[in-house]
Design brief:
CATH class of the largest domain: Mainly Beta
Radius of gyration: 31 Å
Shape: elongated
Helix content: 10-25%
Number of helices: 1
Strand content: over 45%
Strand order of the largest sheet: 1-2-3-6-7-11-12-13
Order of helices and strands: HEEEEEEEEEEEEE
Structural class: alpha+beta
Number of domains: 2
Amino acid sequence: MTRLGLMIRAKTLFLNLVFTVKRAITIFFLILSFLGLQAQVEKRNEDVKLYYRGSNSYGLTLHTQGWGISYKKQVHLSYKLKRIYNFEFQNLKHPKQEKVVNNFFDDSKGYYFGKINSLSHLRIGIGQQHAFASKEIRKGVQLAWVYGLGLNLGLMKPSYIEYFVDPTEAEVVRYDPSIHSPGLIRGRAGFFKGMNEIDLVPGIYGKFGLNFEYSPYDEKLKSMEVGVAVDWFYKEVPLMYDTYNKQYWITLYLMLEIGKKIE
């Protein structure tokens, strides 16, 4: 190889070495920057974990068999793990209930044909929330698994209707589809009628869901939760006349929550 060729080859090797060293230095500093950012994020997360002891929140739930309201108290065990104390009040409807109106009367009100009882229930339970995707920026979203179980107190209230016992006078009576003709029913009675006849039906419940926390402020709590719940009662709950009645409900739910964190 000629002297000129050797010089060209040496220059090429030198330039390649310089390029490789510069690229290695760039990658090294990028790694240091990334690690520094991660350290800042972890420090911020730890600050949040230590600064807030828990939270209180209120929620509105829509589910496949009704709706409900809730109160939730959370205790921060760590940045990613929270213990939940849950209180919910919901109603449950029979899948076959259908609202009808007797068009024979001008002042008719809707009622549920064949519905002999209504069912609401109070859940009191404990659970956990475990984050698997942290909210690392102020406008980010934290994703967490949520699960819980507890006691269920069913409140079964009898149905009352306004029924024409003669052509001119309607009375409020307890609904019995076996003796009350649909053509003589003006509609449902007042909501509070039958409150003094509520029957308690205890049971248990369990739920599992996915929680999305998205508040742009650290001290505030806004979240959406979707999941599945099972409500079981110790006996069959008679809601509808002359059809099957259930002892348990499996529902899909969507819950929206707002609240505030506790220092």
